[in-house]
Amino acid sequence: MKTNTHLFLLFFFFGIVSAIAQNPDPHGTDESAVTGMVSLQLSQEKLVPNNIIYKTGNPADWPAELDAVLAAPSNHKVVLENDKVRVLEVTLKPNEIEPLHHHRWPSVLYIQEAGDFTDADSNGNIIFDSRKLEEPLTFPLTMYKEPEAPHSVVNLSDTKPIRLIRVEIKQ
């Protein structure tokens, strides 16, 4: 029975990935922050409360230059950093495309404000689209995430910024 369940989940997952991969403009915008990226298997999918999907994996496999503070400095401001935590103030202006980046440590996010947005993996495949949720997200929203694989968020709102505090837990 377990083998049948595992096979079903495997085929279901590949069916979803195949369907998503066929969308040439996954963010619904004229450009993509991950255009021209080399295809890498760096992650696996996770689901957190509120049906927010993201990808995790082994941070040792992710390029150091894609650390959020290095790769997307205009979106990630270090508020506090020591040997235990790194606290980031994260902002995306309306219609902004965030550069490809990762978060190598587990994190707690306190999302203060956001309109519609998408999140794409390092291959440009949409892994989350807030417009497809059955119920809109309610803010403020707090959640825990494992290390987050290389991704790019696009703020689809014409008026609302995305604002959150991310506490990355080093130890």
* Largest sheet: number of strands, sense, barrel closure: 5 strands, antiparallel
> What letter string, H or E per element, gives the SSE order?
HEEHEEEEEEEEE
Strand order of the largest sheet: 3-4-11-6-9
- 3D shape: globular
Number of strands: 11
Number of helices: 2
Q: Given the helix and strand composition, which structural class is it?
A: mainly beta
Beta-strand residue percentage: 35-45%
Helical content (DSSP H or I, runs of 4+): 10-25%
As residue ranges, the low-confidence spans are 1-26, 30-41
Nearest-integer average pLDDT: 81
End-to-end C-alpha gap: 39 Å
Radius of gyration: 16 Å
Q: What is the topology?
A:
Elements: H1 2-21, E1 44-48, E2 52-56, H2 68-71, E3 76-81, E4 85-92, E5 101-103, E6 107-113, E7 117-121, E8 126-129, E9 141-145, E10 148-155, E11 162-169
Fill in the keyword field for this structure:
single chain, 171 residues, mainly beta, 37% strand
What does this molecule look like?
With 171 residues, the protein is mostly beta strands. It is 14% helix and 37% strand. It has two helices and eleven strands; from the N terminus they run αββαβββββββββ. A hairpin with a 4-residue loop joins strand 7 and strand 8. The chain is globular, with a radius of gyration of 16 Å. It starts with a helix and ends with a strand.
